[in-house]
């Protein structure tokens, strides 16, 4: 297992370097090069590779540059934005999993029943409703209309502790993202569980006299989680990158919203710095998904590269 | 002139989600109900869920909602030409810098965008021959106890000269403006500055458009990293001082603790400003200008992601962040009754009072006269008349603007009404109401025909005759134009689509492209970018040159003459306004210029739009200023 993780970790580092090189290269084509924007005056005429290596060296040391548009360091903007986004998307993803896994499993086990049809309709509805519409409705009924049960905007106080403890203001954005995400996870879980239920090892377990509960939990659930783990791994960049529409709707200046605004105002240092963090999250998510497979399926960790 | 609409442009750029209408609300509610049931257990009732009466008002504090996506970014009032345009915006200058550092002359007297002597640091200037004398009030003091005096004005002027020479002149100054049009700037006594004006000038223009650019700077700022400097007395020192001050202003998080920036002559001091744009200012007890007897002592400016988010917070009086002064998105405003300037407040805002303020501006979009393909077509007056016939200003106002707007009628703002507006134009109103048949007739009368294979009209009769396409227009030239406009403006999305539709009925093809505000402005003001034919970014606010003379926007080769309009008669008329020495001569020159240029349609006139301000009941914010200058030191709770 250790060798497997080490091997995948090294691959992740290489991929990360390639991703940063590509992003830096693409932004070089934009008006105002990232070199000059990130490294300051006089750097515009540096060779591309030298500029990239200089930026990378600083990034590794935690210096992601400075936004001349906002007069703030990218690191400080990141420090203010990342906790909000992590809480928002992290909590909503966990909630979505907690709801979606049993719902998907139940649908598979009760396939074709009224419960399956109802839950399928609900999950499709969640999946198909744009987050901004869903969020607007929640705000309208639960925040704007009396008795104003929840806050109309996300937590505004600085610091992750304030964000976590402000349940009233965090509820609607988390619920919005959860509802949208739960539809996706539940659909995957249902398909995967149906597939597992038709496998020979399930029949074998039943033939051996295992109880239905044990069959479902020990055999179906564990094997059905593999695609969900994949999906979860792929969700990590979204967790870090933020859900831009939900952040915009709930006045949360998180990662997604800041990155979007930086792109609109051609704020290259912020765009580059935030993209780097999202890229790290994407690669990390992929790595964690791979490790998750290996944990869930021994065939993966014993396979040769 | 400041692109003051930038603030509102930025708000639109944020892509504010449309708020669901009542019918849609019911439909969507049904859909969401199921999802809510699923989540009920997960989300549960929130602790501290509040209901009941509006929040108890803290009568010493006002929370002021900024326009979406805007925030204070730069504290040093001398914004150099190389700084980002966002540093020279209404939200950074008027809502932030002017609260700390007062300009020499304050403009805006009620809704009228004129000099306000009461709030100015200096008495109105006096002119004698080519010499102007500025006498400062001896009552104004810096917060460190030093007087705001003549040397502080010379400090600014010296900085202007030094940075101008380095290609980084004050961003609000155009080529030929201050400091190039004056010599011999001197502090002749502690409170008196004189300078000699080069060449002929209009007193009104010089006061409103030149002296309006000056913000006195304290001697405490006349320093470099190595200690005190002498920029206030010697231009040679100023480059180093600018560099030091600019560097000191480069981190917003230090503004609240900086001793340098803590020396203010305005009514407010920065307590804190964070990277997200949350700004808290405390009242400067040493402020020596006029204040309300029971004024507020803390002003919190809060940024928003979208106007929808701001409106949601406005409607929730029990939230953890309650807005005392905010704004109502036009799309959510009930249409005012016919003939009324203000309609009812939405029923969801019972605790607020609505008051619209029309900024001192004009709204328009330029033609690219330098475009090698379409430029010759745009140079034909009959074409511009036909095109303006296709713009349904009244329809835009009554439709997407919900009744809040005034049609553009010429190169001078017609609302608020000022003495600068030609009486003839004011009487005539908007002569260019939607008239598609008239547009079609004008085009057909000048040789434009539908090609056999379909498509937009093409020039079938090139030539310079009165019934031909006009000079420079080639045979086969097509009425096919690229129209770029700043994305995120809800009303403009509708207006642009309607314009394209009207144009197609007249035989033109307009290709619409929504682009970020900065991209549109970058293209429109570029001398070499001809990827566009028509470019719309919003409007032009007269600030800090408050006199709507045309030398900045409409004179040949003027720096902000987007599209490169050129007309010799117009140029001569503009020069006459700048040279008029007496108020009467100035008015006559202004009227002559406008009466001519309005009919020339150098740009496409669009409606101006108000800011719909909402103030919480009990808070008196006075009459709002059309120059978009806020005076929170005059705000108080009744």
Keywords:
heterodimer, A: 305 residues, mainly alpha, 2 strands, 1% strand, flat, B: 638 residues, alpha+beta, Dipeptide-binding Protein, domain 1, four-stranded antiparallel sheet, 16 helices, 25 strands, disordered N terminus
Description:
The complex is a heterodimer of chains A (305) and B (638). Chain A is mainly alpha-helical. Chain A has 14 helices and two strands; from the N terminus they run H-H-H-E-E-H-H-H-H-H-H-H-H-H-H-H. A two-stranded antiparallel ribbon of chain A has the order 1-2. The longest helix of chain A is centred in the N-terminal third of the chain and has 36 residues. The model of chain A has no long low-confidence stretch (mean pLDDT 85). In chain B, helix 15 runs antiparallel to helix 16. Chain B is an alpha+beta fold and 638 residues long. Chain B has a four-stranded mixed β-sheet with strand order 1-12-11-10, with no helix packed on it. In chain B, strands 4-5-7-6 form a four-stranded antiparallel β-sheet, with helices on one face. Chain B has a three-stranded antiparallel β-sheet with strand order 13-23-14. Chains A and B meet through strand 2, helix 4, helix 5, helix 6 and helix 8 of A and helix 2, helix 7 and helix 14 of B.
Chart the SSEs and their pairings.
The complex is a heterodimer of chains A (305) and B (638).
Chain A (H helix, E strand, L loop, with lengths): L1 H28 L4 H6 L8 H13 L5 E2 L4 E2 H36 L4 H15 L2 H14 L15 H6 L1 H31 L2 H8 L4 H30 L2 H6 L5 H10 L3 H29 L1 H5 L3
Helix pairs in contact in A: 1-13, 4-5, 4-8, 4-10, 4-13, 5-8, 6-8, 8-10, 9-10, 10-13, 12-13
Chain B lengths: L5 H8 L8 H22 L17 E5 L24 H11 L6 E3 L2 E4 L10 E3 L2 E5 L14 H16 L16 E8 L2 E6 L5 H8 L12 E2 L2 E2 L9 H11 L19 E6 L5 E5 L14 E5 L4 H8 L10 E3 L24 E6 L3 E6 L8 H4 L2 H9 L3 H6 L24 H6 L7 H10 L2 E2 L8 E2 L20 E7 L3 H16 L3 E7 L1 H8 L9 E3 L2 E3 L26 H12 L3 H18 L2 E4 L4 E6 L2 E2 L15 E2 L1
Parallel strand pairs in B: 1-12, 18-19, 18-20
Antiparallel strand pairs in B: 2-3, 4-5, 5-7, 6-7, 8-9, 10-11, 11-12, 13-23, 14-23, 15-21, 15-22, 16-17, 24-25
